[in-house]
Design a protein that fits this description.
Number of helices: 5
Largest sheet: 2 strands, antiparallel
Shape: globular
Number of domains: 1
Distance between the termini: 44 Å
Strand order of the largest sheet: 1-2
Number of strands: 2
Order of helices and strands: HHHHEHE
């Protein structure tokens, strides 16, 4: 079996088997599905949305591990999805992952923007800080 740096990274970091097996294709498709749902006005619950933005972070982490000749194709899709969802989001007072996690991980609104924005319409599952 050939080396698979994405799979190795996901396993090493303890991600669920379905994420390890699906790899970048699963994560990208999941993000694109989240984007489509938000654009179509679906109101996500907080936990589901946080899982989605966690997957967006995972995408960012593994894109550098993909062979250069494949990166452009994936990056175009990721950035296209990002551009589509951003107009449907609003800034949050605190990062969705929590201020302590954001500080510990070094997240910033510029680099990990997905943790600092939420859908414009949310339900009662969302905490007050979001």
């Amino acid at each position: 079996m050939k080396d698979d740096p994405v799979r190795d990274f996901l396993q090493r970091n303890g991600y669920a088997d379905y994420i390890v097996e699906g790899g970048v294709d699963y994560l990208l498709t999941s993000w694109e599905s989240t984007v489509a749902a938000i654009i179509h006005g679906d109101v996500p619950d907080y936990t589901a949305y946080l899982r989605s933005v966690d997957r967006r972070r995972m995408l960012q982490e593994i894109l550098a591990l993909i062979p250069v000749y494949e990166q452009d194709w994936y990056l175009r899709r990721v950035y296209a999805a990002d551009d589509q969802i951003k107009p449907h989001l609003m800034l949050t007072r605190f990062p969705l992952c929590g201020p302590a996690v954001a500080t510990e991980q070094g997240y910033t609104p510029e680099r990990q923007w997905w943790y600092y924005r939420r859908p414009r319409v949310v339900d009662e599952t969302w905490p007050e800080f979001a």
